[in-house]
Amino acid sequence: MVLIILLILIAFVVIFAVQNAIPVTISFLNWKFDASLAIVIFLSVFAGMIISAIIVFSRRIRRYIKKQD
User: Fold this and answer.
1) pLDDT score for 10
2) Is the pLDDT of residue 4 over 90?
3) Closest to 36 in 3D by CA, of 52, 59, 53, 20
4) Tens digits of per-residue pLDDT, 26-45?
5) Nearest to residue 45, comparing CAs of 2, 4, 7, 9?
6) At what angle do helices 2-19 and 37-68 cross, to 10 degrees?
7) Which of 38, 52, 56, 62 could form a disulfide with 17 if both were Cys (CB 3.0 to 4.6 A apart)?
8) Contact at 8 Å (CB) between 42 and 17?
9) Is there a contact between 20 and 36 (Cβ–Cβ < 8 Å)?
10) Does residue 69 register a pLDDT over 80?
11) pTM score over 0.90
12) Other beta carbons within 10 Å of 38
């Protein structure tokens, strides 16, 4: 079930990114670079998935440690 939801979410992100493939300028602090909006969307979604996974796994580890005590 989770795999199906994940695949649907990925499909929506791909469709959205392909429809918005214009070049954009990204600026962060002193960094500036040009990239496709599709790449920016993919990287943002990927970063969100990584951050979410870190939070979920850290909570699971804490729960596991509490059960051991």
Assistant:
1) 84
2) yes
3) 20
4) 898 998 989 988 888 888 88
5) 9
6) 160
7) 38
8) yes
9) no
10) no
11) no
12) 19
